[in-house]
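Work Package 3 (structural annotation) set out to generate three-dimensional models for the target panel prioritized at the project kickoff. During this period the team completed the workflow that converts sequence records into discrete structure tokens, so that structures can be stored uniformly alongside our sequence database. As a representative example, we reproduce one entry of 279 residues exactly as it appears in the project archive.
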Amino acid sequence: MELLFLGVLGGRAFAALSGPLLYLYFLVPFGGFLTPALQDFTARFIMHGLDLLGVANYTDGYTIQIPRARSTSRRGARAALPDRLDRLRLPLRAADLPHLAALALTLAPGPAAIGPDLATAGCQADPRAVPERATIRRYACDGLVLRAETFPAGAAPRLIVGEWARLTRPAGAEDATTWRLPRSDLPWTLTQTSQPPSLAAALLWQGGRPVEPGLRFRLRQAWHTLVGGGATLVLLVLTPARAEAGSEGEGRASLAMASFLDAEAARIGAALAAASPAQ
């Protein structure tokens, strides 16, 4: 376009119109290739910021979910946050960072509901564990590791099912076998893999009762994601602290897990009922 003006109008007219002609450069969209990188940076920045501030959150891609909360403002006045402030939808622009930082600072003083407290004399919060997410509590239980992860009521079903798979199967494991733990007060599902060797027991709880992460659950949870409603979800996963190869090692781990779950069934059920009561 500039060359056309130069050829038709001459150098003097082109010099006089150089300012407006330069503006034409900005009429052509550019920089779209930077959008994914900026969105990734924004999501990671917010996720780590919320973790540092102690705000429970669950991040999947460009979706950040936080539990409902109430907080105290800087001046000490009590401010009620909206009850449905549990989802922040991205993509976001870099200009949105100050607003989200202010939101995180507002949420920080408030209590973060991060699920059931399962600590007892034989099952203590693991101080050596690096937090995987702000919504996960980890306990060391006499050679076993118990993880309790909380999801908001409107969490997408693929996030929940994905966490179930991540916590019960090592990365790269393909030959997984699942079965129900026999003679148990709660319907624990055991998952075992041989390469690499692993064993895990998992239980999903919502609204005062255990739920199966099958098709019916996914359809119901997808409905809650779209229109609201539902109840907080709690995922419990129990694994051996150290994987033992061979049939003898797997037998010992299975027996230890079954004994623990049988002995702690009443306490675990009460903690789950308190964290996600019946609606």
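DSSP finds nine helices and 13 strands in the chain.
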